[in-house]
């Protein structure tokens, strides 16, 4: 087709595109207004969420899921909205998790609450295995902050976390996966020191052996355990070291009877 023919047809094509864009914008505006209209079946009140797809059936919805409005009152419409996320963990479930971890010898003050987010999942809709290493890392830092503050207050805790003076460096970690975790869920994670069975390993005062566990509130069970080795390191002298007894006492105070 000659180029001059294309040029002559361009205005018509442009008008069609503009018209289509206007209709598209109008449809979007109409839908947005429907979301705000209490009498509309698409109405969503502020702070609520709708279904994830058009075909989804609300778990707590009546057969007629359309909103109903009483014209004689100012009451909000009665309708059901799907809950995407569960309510906060109940005191009973938290108490059960706490008891399970304390029974395994974990200090209740070092328990870390780790909420599972959508980004933690892999293509199989389970928490990706590498995420547990990060969860245990965060729990370990919380554990260090706890015994550091017991030892010397907030300043000592901050020094431990920022690598000032004597602190800890992770040497190795081994994770034992027991159960897959899905979203949404909340894990309670904790750390404690323990003495290795090998007398040779136990004799190295520059090394500290740790155990960690992650407990699922949804499953009411332990979903992962970890064995870690950390090294005492003097950041001022840039070498391994043996910590002072007071710091060691604070560390071992976080271990229960089963260590």
Task: Explain this structure.
This protein is an alpha+beta fold. The protein has a domain at 91-252: Thiol Ester Dehydrase, Chain A. It is 36% helix and 19% strand. It has 5 helices and 6 strands, in the order H-H-E-H-E-E-H-E-E-E-H. It has helices at 3-36, 91-103, 129-162, 199-202, 245-252, and strands spanning 112-115, 166-177, 186-193, 207-216, 221-234, 239-240. Strands 1, 2, 3, 4, 5 and 6 form a 6-stranded antiparallel sheet that branches. A hairpin with a 4-residue loop joins strand 5 and strand 6. The longest helix has 34 residues, at 3-36. The termini are far apart. The model is unreliable at 3-7 and 52-86 (pLDDT under 50).
Number of helices: 5
Biggest β-sheet: count, sense, barrel? 6 strands, antiparallel
Estimate the helix proportion, in percent: 25-40%
Main structural class: alpha+beta
CATH architectural type of the domain at 91-252: Roll
The CATH homology group name of the domain at 91-252: Hotdog Thioesterase
The CATH class of the domain at 91-252 turns out to be Alpha Beta
Low-confidence blocks of residues? 3-7, 52-86
Mean pLDDT reading: 80
Strand residues, percent: 15-25%
Number of strands: 6
Q: Whole-Å distance between the termini?
A: 84 Å
GO molecular function: fatty acyl-CoA hydrolase activity
Biased composition (Basic and acidic residues): 61-73
Region (Disordered): 37-89
Protein name: Thioesterase domain-containing protein
């Amino acid at each position: 087709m000659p180029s001059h023919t294309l040029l002559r047809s361009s205005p018509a094509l442009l008008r069609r595109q503009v018209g289509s864009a206007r209709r598209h914008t109008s449809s979007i505006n109409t839908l947005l207004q429907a979301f705000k209209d209490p009498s509309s079946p698409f109405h969503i009140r502020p702070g609520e969420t709708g279904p994830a797809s058009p075909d989804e059936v609300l778990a707590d919805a009546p057969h007629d899921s359309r909103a109903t409005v009483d014209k004689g009152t100012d009451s909000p419409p009665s309708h059901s909205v799907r809950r995407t996320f569960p309510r906060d963990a109940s005191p009973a479930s938290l108490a059960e998790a706490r008891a399970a971890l304390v029974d395994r010898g974990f200090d209740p003050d070092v328990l870390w609450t780790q909420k599972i987010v959508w980004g933690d999942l892999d293509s199989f809709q389970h928490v990706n295995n590498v995420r547990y290493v990060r969860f245990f890392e965060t729990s370990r830092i919380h554990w260090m902050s706890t015994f550091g503050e017991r030892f010397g207050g907030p300043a000592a805790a901050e020094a431990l976390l920022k690598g000032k003076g004597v602190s800890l460096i992770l040497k190795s970690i081994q994770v034992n996966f027991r159960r897959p975790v899905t979203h949404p869920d909340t894990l309670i994670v904790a750390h404690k020191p323990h003495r290795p069975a090998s007398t040779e390993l136990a004799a190295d005062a520059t090394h500290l052996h740790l155990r960690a566990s992650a407990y699922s509130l949804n499953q009411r069970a332990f979903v992962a355990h970890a064995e870690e080795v950390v090294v005492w390191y003097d950041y001022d002298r840039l070498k391994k070291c043996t910590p002072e007894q007071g710091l060691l006492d604070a560390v071992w105070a976080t271990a229960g009877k089963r260590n």
